[in-house]
Specification:
- The protein contains 5 helices and 11 strands; from the N terminus they run ββαααββββαβββββα.
- With 195 residues, the protein is α+β, with helices and mostly antiparallel strands.
- The chain has a single domain, classed as Glutamine Phosphoribosylpyrophosphate, subunit 1, domain 1 (4-Layer Sandwich), CATH 3.60.20.10.
- Strands 1-2-3-4-8-9 form a 6-stranded antiparallel sheet. The chain has a 3-stranded antiparallel sheet with strand order 6-5-7, with helices on one face.
- Helix 1 packs across helix 2.
- The chain is globular and about 55 Å long.
- The N and C termini lie far apart (83 Å).
Amino acid sequence: EDECPSHPRSMVVVDDVFCIFVGTLENTCDLRHHYGLSRQATEAMVVVEAYKVLRDRAPYPPDQVIKDLEGKFAFILFDARAGNLFLARDRDGCVQLQWGIAGDGSLVCSDDPKIITEACGKCYTPFPPGCIFMNGTGLISFDHPLHKVRAIAREDDNGNISAVIFQVDLYTKLHSIPRTGSAANWAGSTVVEGE
């Protein structure tokens, strides 16, 4: 009803994967070709297919999937079979996407400010641009996937939290795969057995 003409909204359900996509992709033709989709495939269908590649070909990093999307977009994807929630917003934050906590403790996500205000009251904030959220891994910057994304609370004069912003902490790296192999073992002493 309140859809913005410059950021159209589309919804698709494929194999129990629900996707609401807002905005446009500039490289839809390339992505259709990459994922083997027909010319009629919408941007939401492309996102569902990208998610399926991520889900089915693990450990494919989610930031690599999203980096391929060029344009002004935000999406909410839910995989009913796996119970996975996947959200993303473009680097520039051109498309609105809010998220917050409802009174019953559930997560609410929407591009409509009225919906988010009614559901969450004041307990919401803009979803950070250039980030993805998956319920298994948390919030990640797709430009800096090895660095932690921190929530920073803003307080009013009375000490009440008035807003939360998210920022990539370029000084704190996330844990990655430990190194193994010959370079990791050279520092150890050599023990010769048998004599």
